Amino acid sequence: MTKFTLNGKSVDVDNPPDELLLLVIRDQIGLKGTKYGCGAAMCGACTVHVDGEAMFSCQLSVGDIEGAEITTIEGLSDDGTHPLQKAWVAEQVPQCGYCQSGQIMRAAALLSENPSPSREEIVDHMSANLCRCGTYNRIFKAVERAAREV
């Protein structure tokens, strides 16, 4: 039995300790915002926060997160009113949308560490996540907008 906090709620799962956190979140708990992209920590679609740090859930097992606080895109706000979610809409970031939850989660981790990042800091921090549609300039503008509004 693995115990952790997910989006502010205590969770107990009875999975093998090597079961991927991504699969537990999506398939067992039913939160579909965290996406399965590459499965190799190369794209960032599966980004969640583990104790406030942006991490790839496709590379974490439930045994790795015992007692941790996990936040998914669903945990940022109940109604999509987190400043980053609003900035994503205002800047018209998504095209296909597949990477967006991971992008937002990585950006949220940056803003919690550095509420006023420079463009260079944003570009550097966000480089761990890929957008196959190439909306990087809109992503950077959205992070800058959210930083101004936080």
From TrEMBL:
<feature type="domain" description="2Fe-2S ferredoxin-type">
    <location>
        <begin position="1"/>
        <end position="76"/>
    </location>
</feature>
<dbReference type="Pfam" id="PF00111">
    <property type="entry name" value="Fer2"/>
</dbReference>
<dbReference type="InterPro" id="IPR002888">
    <property type="entry name" value="2Fe-2S-bd"/>
</dbReference>
<dbReference type="InterPro" id="IPR051452">
    <property type="entry name" value="Diverse_Oxidoreductases"/>
</dbReference>
<keyword id="KW-0001">2Fe-2S</keyword>
<keyword id="KW-0408">Iron</keyword>
<dbReference type="Pfam" id="PF01799">
    <property type="entry name" value="Fer2_2"/>
</dbReference>
<dbReference type="InterPro" id="IPR036884">
    <property type="entry name" value="2Fe-2S-bd_dom_sf"/>
</dbReference>
<dbReference type="InterPro" id="IPR036010">
    <property type="entry name" value="2Fe-2S_ferredoxin-like_sf"/>
</dbReference>
<keyword id="KW-0560">Oxidoreductase</keyword>
<protein>
    <submittedName>
        <fullName>(2Fe-2S)-binding protein</fullName>
    </submittedName>
</protein>
<dbReference type="GO" id="GO:0051537">
    <property type="term" value="F:2 iron, 2 sulfur cluster binding"/>
</dbReference>
<dbReference type="GO" id="GO:0016491">
    <property type="term" value="F:oxidoreductase activity"/>
</dbReference>
<dbReference type="InterPro" id="IPR006058">
    <property type="entry name" value="2Fe2S_fd_BS"/>
</dbReference>
<dbReference type="GO" id="GO:0046872">
    <property type="term" value="F:metal ion binding"/>
</dbReference>
<keyword id="KW-0411">Iron-sulfur</keyword>
<keyword id="KW-0479">Metal-binding</keyword>
<dbReference type="InterPro" id="IPR001041">
    <property type="entry name" value="2Fe-2S_ferredoxin-type"/>
</dbReference>
<dbReference type="InterPro" id="IPR012675">
    <property type="entry name" value="Beta-grasp_dom_sf"/>
</dbReference>
